[in-house]
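lol ok so funny story. i was supposed to be doing the assay writeup but got distracted and ended up predicting the structure for this chain instead. priorities right. anyway since i did it might as well share w the group, maybe its usefull for someone
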Amino acid sequence: MNMRKRLFLALGSAIFVLSMHGLEAQTARPSPTPSSLVNRFAQLSPPAVTIPLPSTISPEAGLTGVPSPLAQAQTPGQNLVSVPTFTDPLVVSPEPQLSPEAITPGSEPGASNQPNGKPSTPAKGLTPDISLAAAKPSNQLRLRFGGIVRATYESNIFIQPTNEISDFYFTVAPSIAVGAGDFDRPLEIRQASFLSPQYFANTDLIQHPQQPFIYLSYMPSYTAFVDHTDQNSFDSDIIGEFQITLHKITLGAFARYQTFRLPDTDLGTRVRQYITSAEAFFLYTWSSKTQWESDIFLQNRDYSVGIGSLEIWNENWLDYKYSDKTSFGPGLAAGLLIPQQGVDQYYGRAQLRATWRPTGKLSFAAKGGAPG
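and the output, tada:
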């Protein structure tokens, strides 16, 4: 037992001595400085390796696992693989080819094939040729649809001085027109007198357009009364018109057939009427200041009650353009009235008319005369 205790004591003394020796060695070591730490980490870091990079990679070298089109790419950041650039396609028009007949020897390009090799332009001061192609309307036919819906109240539907009778009635009138050229405005002027007799009293004061046109229109209508259904009526309005211009000459014609039932002030009742109207005009421009116009009119009137008539007359005018806004001129008129019963009547008169247009959309016109 004593021997065992002695061995443990000796062993414990040896361990204590060794521990104290290690503590002294640790205490004697100096504390590390920042520079020493940097040097220590520098020693632990692997050395920098510089690998020379070629400017291009030879396609013969090849890259394992990389397709051949990508094997020729350079290092990241220096890839010089061409990128497609998209631009608008370049359209190259073929140069115009001139036929051998287009240019004669000694002539200049653009000159017509004339004996002297010069273009065929009219001589200065001569009137250019009249082109029939320019005189006719456009070959393209157009359809025009429209219509009118009207509600009207009349306090005296039979136009009687006593025992006035009022009523409320509706009118529905679709329209269709086919034509060529610039016929919209002339058609609108004619249809403005819808369900009214065609009058020519101031027709010659309307400025005729200069563009060729032609059209034919049809407007049926139905008028329905609320109380007096016996006055209901189905009516028609057919219009045809054309105009052409040949240099200084303008020719035109107009025809219209109307049926309607309207109150007659002379008879004091509503009368069924059938009116046929026609006009033809000739306009000649002498100069920039003067023009001559001749119109022929025809109108036939038939009534269900009363006496109808046929009238034909002619008007001639010599107009002078005083300014861009004002024009005036004298005129002569002569006509014949043929009633269905009675004696024919001839008449004539001297006239004077004037037109003033302060704006492009506003105009004033007046006409007067003395019977002959």
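The chain has five helices and eleven strands. Residues 21-29, 48-132 have pLDDT under 50 and may be disordered.
back to the writeup now i swear
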